[in-house]
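Worked problem 6 (solution included).
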Amino acid sequence: MSATDYQATLLRKLRRGTSILTDQEVALITKKALEMLKDSFGDNPYFNTRSMEDIVRWSSLRSRCEKEREKRGLSLKDVSRRLKIPQYRLKAIECGELRALRPDAVREYFRFLGIDRWEARWRRSNRELAERAGLTRLTVEHQRRRKRLR
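Solution. The predicted structure is:
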């Protein structure tokens, strides 16, 4: 595939917003974004390759959540009431604020939106980030189900 074809394919994926990007695509986007924003953020220790990669990797997950929620005509407030999960936790999920994530709430939100299978594919493609977000550990509920099936 030529460089032009590759860029065209990548642009289509980015326009879709919910495509799971490859490591190579994430690296390219991160590199370009850092180059473009270097003058604005300079030596800010919180603005680095890893944080930019996290943003790029999480963006498809955020887009998928928003798209599915909006397809159902629901606001974060509506979902918060239905699931009894505080709005700030739902915002943290959609924004990728790793420190504020609660894995059980994340899984419940994904299940509610019907994207749990898609998210499992995303998780496999983004193992390191999923691990840091606590999404790879089995919840107590999942562990119990597994034991019952044995």
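Discussion: The radius of gyration is 17 Å.
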